[in-house]
Specification:
By secondary structure, the chain is of the alpha+beta class. The chain has helices at residues 131-136, 152-156, 167-171, 180-192, 202-210, 214-221; strands at residues 2-12, 33-38, 44-49, 55-62, 65-71, 77-79, 103-105, 116-120. A hairpin with a 5-residue loop joins strand 2 and strand 3.
């Protein structure tokens, strides 16, 4: 046996993109139980609780071998997307069941980059506003946490356009990418808006866009809109310089 160390953080993934975004000040929950599980036996060999900032650390003398880390899921949340972005220290490492894949723990080699992101679950409803609504009602974007000038690929965490095309431009241009981006933006706004009882969560929308599942999003976006008012003037994606297309897609 030898001393083994596992750790890092649980955090609230505000935009459900699977990445700890420093500019969003994504906080961590206190009191989440974290378990170190021996993959050979399936038994938890140690536990820890997250601190006020969501950090945890498990230290102890265990047999060197294959382990995984499992996280408690608080009510109202689901685990965010796994292995997004290029930094292992900023992504989420857990599967939908709350446990990581098994990995090798070696003596004198601490593994302190095991993180879990929590995405607020707001799915299962029967409402959905169309892309046309979001294009022409920019004032409702504020409640979602998204803005028309955000970069599409950065928000969704996968390469769709491959440049700095914005959310506003994507929702203002139907037909691009066979309407995947058009419906993807609307679906994300529906999922994030507190007054829309949408069928999908933000993480499910992001996954659907990255998988190219336009039909799923289109159907949910036609369920019926509970929002009204807040009309813009002119085309939604072009108002006030928002949603401009910064690189050409003809």
């Amino acid at each position: 046996m030898c001393e083994l160390t596992v750790g890092d953080r649980v955090w609230f993934d505000v935009n459900c993109n699977g990445i700890q975004d420093k500019d969003l000040e994504e906080s961590g929950p206190e009191g989440i139980m974290v378990s170190l599980v021996d993959c050979a036996t399936g038994e938890a060999v140690a536990t820890a609780m997250t601190d006020a900032d969501g950090f945890y650390q498990i230290d102890g003398y265990f047999t060197e071998g294959s382990y995984r880390v499992c996280f408690e899921l608080p009510d109202g949340y689901e685990f965010t997307l796994k292995d997004q972005g290029s930094s292992n220290g900023l992504d989420s490492d857990v599967n939908s069941d709350g446990c990581t894949d098994c990995f090798l723990l070696e003596c004198n080699k601490p593994n302190v980059s095991i993180d879990a992101g929590l995405c607020e679950h707001k799915g299962g409803g029967d409402e959905g506003c169309t892309p046309g609504f979001w294009r022409n009602h920019l004032s409702h974007w504020a409640a979602t946490g998204y803005s028309p000038d955000m970069i599409f690929d950065e928000v969704f965490g996968c390469e769709i356009f491959g440049d700095d095309t914005t959310l506003g431009w994507a929702v203002d241009n139907p037909g691009i990418l066979k309407n995947l981006a058009f419906h993807g933006v609307a679906a994300l706004l529906n999922a994030a808006h507190p007054d829309v009882d949408y069928a999908l969560s933000e993480s499910e929308v992001i996954q659907a866009v990255c998988n190219g599942d336009k039909d799923l999003l289109a159907a949910a976006n036609e369920a019926g809109c509970s929002l009204s008012g807040g009309n813009t003037t002119g085309n939604g994606g072009a108002v006030g310089g928002h949603g401009q297309k910064l690189h050409g897609h003809n």
